[in-house]
Amino acid sequence: KKPVIIDCDPGLDDAIALVLALSEESLDVKCITTSAGNQTPEKTLNNALKVLSFIGKDLEVAQGAGKPILKDLVIAGDIHGESGLGGTELPEATLKKSNRSAIEAIVDILNKSDEKVTIIATGPLTNIGILLVSHPEIKDKIERITLMGGACFGGNKTPAAEFNIYVDPEAANIVFNSGIPIVMCGLDVTSKAQMFKKEINDMRNIGNKVGVMVADILDFYSSTTTPHFLSDGTKEEGPHLHDVCAVAYEIDPTLFITKKCNVVVETSGEYTKGSTVVDYNGVTDRVKNTEVVFDLDRKRFIDMLFNAVKKYNE
Ligand code: BDR
Ligand code: CA
Asked: Which intervals hold domain Inosine/uridine-preferring nucleoside hydrolase (predicted)?
């Protein structure tokens, strides 16, 4: 089993990413840590606890930093709803938050692990940035950081910047400069990881409560993200399962097409702050620090999610 830690900000697609990761036998999820992003730090923590309680997974959930390293927190209530889990009314969590912080939990888990641990990050990179600055020696314990964030082409928060990187560019900059192998599931691939109306209905009809939760989430996500779709309206667009891609990559990287590139983060541009500058054409001799994910086999990806949800039969 591959040991992983998931740092997330649930968040609609984060919640689905958790459903996928926690159903998967090949992953040994050591703990969940939460970042501030899609909603306030209290809400993303509470949402992680609620999702885990609902799907019946008893795992350590540790709260991370309350705000980005330098910037004020920007949230995405317009997309993910007031609660951060729009479209669903999950029961109060039965699981309690860990009594240690995200950083304490990650440091302890990494130090105790015989194997290197992979970090899957699906929110702003604040916790990971702080971890790498406060515990630089811990790098050797990290196998890889597979993250949802950034884009080679075009942003979703600003014309140049994707939301997770935009929220905490300083943290992202630390991560991309760390020397740790990085897999970047940016908008280039995640905008192709769509789920269409019929598939959402089939998800609802799987016959268990997790399928209904995922479908409720996706219906809400469709309603809030439709105005942002790049489509010209001539073909169907479904919600983009951004964060699910990062987990899916760790389960089966053969679903994806990647290219190794140098990636740096713009922390100060007037129009480009928070963008990832991908040297796609290799025009610099900067080190190729990132496996940039560009495409996926959408059908197999959706099948993977269906199989995951089916495992939650009550
Ligand atoms: C990313 O931003 C968040 O709103 C989503 O959860 C995802 O992690 C997409 O840009
Ligand atoms: Ca997220």
From this structure: 4-302
Burial code of 100-117, b = ≥16 C-beta within 10 A, e = fewer? ebbbebbbebbeeeeeeb
Q: Which residues line ligand 1 (CB under 6 A)?
A: 11, 13-14, 38, 76, 79, 122-123, 148, 156, 162-164, 242-243
Three-class SS of 211-249? HHHHHHHHHHHHHHHHHHCCCCCCCCCCCECHHHHHHHH
pLDDT-above-90 percentage for the chain = 95
In the chain, what's the furthest Cα-to-Cα distance? 54
Q: Decide: helix, strand or coil at residue 120.
A: strand
What is the model's pTM?
A: 0.97
pLDDT digits (tens, 9 = 90+) for 4-39: 999 999 999 999 999 999 999 999 999 999 999 999
- Dig out the tokens for 161 from the structure: 């910047």
Q: Is 229 exposed, middle or buried (0-12, 13-18, 19+ CB in 10 A)?
A: middle
Cα distance between residue 2 and residue 238, in whole Å: 31
246 CA distance to ligand 2 middle (Å): 10
Cβ proximity of 229 and 28 under 8 Å: no
